[in-house]
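User: Could you check the structure of this?
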Amino acid sequence: MRLHVMEPTEGRSVSMTHDEAVTPRQRFTLASDDLPAHLDDRARLAAWQDRFVEHSCKLDISPAADRRFSLRCDLARFQEIGAIRFEGTVDRFERPSHYAAIDGSDDLILCLNQGGSATSFTQSGRDATLRSGAVLLATNTMGGRMRAQSDNPWSSLFVPRQRIGALVANVDDRLMKPLDAGVAPVRFLGRYLDLLFAPDDLQDEPALLAHIGTTITDPNIDFAMMAKSMGVYAEGPIIKPGDIAPALKRALAVVRKGQPALVDVITDPR
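Assistant: Sure, the predicted structure tokens are below.
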């Protein structure tokens, strides 16, 4: 996936790279309410899709038949992390495989259902149901289809494959397997995305922006719990120095059996 942000005051397109400083220019909103009022629903839909292609990627959407077309999309790019949030009167979002091939991205996608009703997701012949607040891991290299009730907001976080692959063994085995909303890291992800899309709070906080995509805190993420939710042996968080060596010994025993293991140790920051 590619994210471009249009500079409203100068009318020029800006492509972001990993090395650029994080600024408000890397956030953009596409809203059907901003389209010319004289357009009918068919024209509004076509105009919205054209703008979305310009700023992100090609996407097919099917509006609710009994509602006036309305759709808001917030896009953000923070270093190498991309994020999108959708909300509106749309029943189906779809990206056929040939659309995905055009983008050429191997990002992994964390899809979060932030609405009150269940959402269905299909990719590579596999179906999954996302309950309210649940998260699903998908891939940007293949097409997919999402169906939901109108006005059911959902968000996606696009993360380079190597970032997740370094933390999760056999990451492709985790695709299309929802994580329940009751898991602490999943709840935190929703709050994290709310922070990314906060209207103005981040503009004057460069120190905070520098940590997006690199730091998670308040509350600190429970890496052991996240690993266990994915079927990985884990211990922690470990606070006492004397508990580290026994935990590492137990983890090494698991690794010697050919299985991944994680030990989460709390240390003082530099």
